[in-house]
């Protein structure tokens, strides 16, 4: 009986809170403010409204009904970050490694003292610096970067300040109803705290109406490092500052490593430094064994455009006759089957493993094909197809191919695959060995010939004038 009374009281309390919050919610305006609907109009079809609501519900971690029900209005009224959940320009959610990052190993931040005009803000400069220092340390621990407070007189990369609602008429992110703060991604990086929020000095938001300054600063610093919101309710990058104990989820850690590289372990006094690697010999006229093979002598290489340079792999070497393990330390010295670039990271396929490389460093343990939903011991080739936005990623093996789901943060195979290659790729030459992308078009390699495809034609066949020999395609190597 007591349990029933408690349940009834709890139910009434929740319903009361939802009803009170509903009074201030304008669902259409909310959906426009946070990128789910285009701004500048109030005329939307039922279907577009339903899709927008379902996307919002997914990001809020509630049941995806497509209806503006009580729980939806309740979440719309919760304190949250002011950054849109959906990129306004593209109307598509990007959840993955940061596209815009700081191209440096030491990132600085600075905290501006609250101005005399910020009379409603109760926290001091010391409080903000303390929260920022703690946030910077926690993000720094995840990757091969150091986030530190800028010395006096040095312009910081990330500037943290307290601002009033409507502080800049030209600002693209004014404080919306219920927003706590917002930030700008690299190369800007500014973090703005809402003057009207009564922040408290706790590690987490523990009570309604008492938002943790640290929780908000560490979240906004994630934006300043280049990351978007995600739908994991316990993630530091969840958009809503509800009563919860957030954490850096495996997804957050993965994206941080993918964007900034894995943290290097610090040597201790008892740890002997490994010997310096031997320099890679430079080919000379006398060292014929080191002379790179001519491109006309190479058949079925793996080709990839990585950081505006073409790498051409053959067996366990690159065409400059450099061992792969020398260019990418930690990568196994074994023939590779395929390579492609995914959101700025180099994916190298060796048997049933995928090595993910940032710069020249492997960022984490290899991904298995099985973890992507592909039960094969190896693949034949891989490529991006820019016919779709974002580009679609395809993997081939024998007579089958898979498409990786662009909406899945870990790029798992689309559940509708595998399919037979002959269904959609019938005009691709038989027995191709590898593929790569150039000028947003797919190029297949067979023997020492390159076949450029034409995506603009309905039949999707080989471009006029192709195939051509590898050395003719890469004539700048000659």
TrEMBL record:
Zn(2+) 2 binds at residues 81, 219, 223, 229, 237. Residues 260-291 are annotated as: Disordered. The active site is at residue 220. Keywords: Calcium, Hydrolase, Metal-binding, Metalloprotease, Protease, Signal, Zinc, Zymogen. GO terms for cellular component: extracellular matrix; extracellular space. Zn(2+) 1 binds at residues 182, 192. The keyword Protease applies. Ca(2+) 2 binds at residue 157. One of its GO terms (biological process) is proteolysis. Can bind about 5 Ca(2+) ions per subunit. Residues 98-262 form the Peptidase metallopeptidase domain. Residues 262-273 have a biased composition (Low complexity). A motif (Cysteine switch) lies at residues 79-86. Its cofactor is Ca(2+); Zn(2+). The keyword RNA-binding does not apply. Hemopexin repeats lie at residues 376-428, 429-477. SMART domains: HX, ZnMc. Belongs to the peptidase M10A family. This is Peptidase metallopeptidase domain-containing protein.
């Amino acid at each position: 009986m007591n349990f029933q009374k408690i349940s009834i009281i709890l139910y009434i309390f929740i319903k009361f809170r939802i009803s009170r919050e509903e009074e201030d919610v304008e669902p259409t305006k909310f959906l426009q403010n946070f990128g789910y609907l285009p701004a500048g109009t109030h005329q939307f079809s039922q279907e577009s409204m339903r899709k927008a609501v379902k996307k919002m519900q997914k990001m809020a971690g509630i049941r995806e009904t497509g209806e503006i029900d009580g729980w939806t209005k309740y979440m719309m009224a919760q304190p949250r970050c002011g950054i849109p959940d959906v990129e306004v320009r593209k109307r598509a959610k990007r959840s993955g490694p940061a596209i815009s990052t700081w191209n440096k190993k030491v990132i600085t931040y600075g905290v501006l003292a609250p101005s005399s005009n910020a009379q409603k803000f109760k926290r001091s400069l010391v409080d903000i610096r303390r929260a920022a220092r703690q946030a910077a340390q926690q993000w720094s621990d995840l990757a091969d970067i150091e986030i530190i407070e800028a010395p006096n007189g040095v312009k910081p990369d990330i500037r943290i300040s307290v601002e009033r609602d409507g502080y800049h008429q030209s600002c693209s992110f004014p404080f919306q109803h219920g927003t706590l703060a917002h930030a700008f991604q690299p190369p800007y990086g500014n973090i703005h705290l809402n003057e009207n929020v009564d922040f408290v000095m706790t590690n987490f938001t523990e009570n309604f109406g008492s938002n943790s300054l640290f929780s908000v600063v560490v979240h906004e610093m994630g934006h300043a490092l280049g990351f978007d919101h995600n739908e994991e309710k316990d993630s530091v990058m969840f958009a809503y500052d509800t009563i919860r104990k957030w954490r850096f989820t495996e997804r957050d850690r993965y994206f941080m490593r993918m964007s900034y590289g894995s943290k290097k372990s610090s040597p201790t006094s008892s740890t002997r430094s490994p010997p310096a690697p031997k320099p890679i010999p430079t080919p000379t006229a006398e060292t014929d064994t080191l002379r790179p093979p001519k491109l006309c002598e190479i058949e079925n290489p793996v080709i990839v455009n990585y950081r505006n340079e073409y790498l051409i792999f053959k067996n366990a070497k690159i065409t400059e006759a450099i061992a792969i393990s020398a260019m990418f330390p930690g990568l196994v010295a074994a023939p590779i089957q395929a390579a492609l670039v995914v959101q700025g990271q180099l994916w190298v396929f060796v048997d049933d493993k995928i090595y993910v490389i940032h710069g020249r460093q492997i960022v984490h343990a290899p991904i298995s094909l099985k973890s992507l939903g592909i039960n094969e011991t190896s693949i034949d080739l891989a490529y991006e197809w820019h016919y779709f936005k974002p580009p679609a990623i395809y993997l081939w093996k024998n007579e089958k191919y898979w498409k990786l789901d662009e909406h899945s943060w870990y790029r798992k195979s689309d559940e509708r695959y595998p399919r037979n290659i002959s269904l959609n790729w019938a005009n691709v030459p038989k027995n191709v060995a590898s593929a790569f992308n150039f000028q947003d078009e797919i190029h297949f390699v067979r023997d020492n010939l390159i076949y450029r495809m034409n995506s603009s034609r309905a039949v999707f066949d080989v471009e006029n004038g192709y195939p051509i020999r590898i050395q003719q395609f890469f004539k700048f190597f000659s």
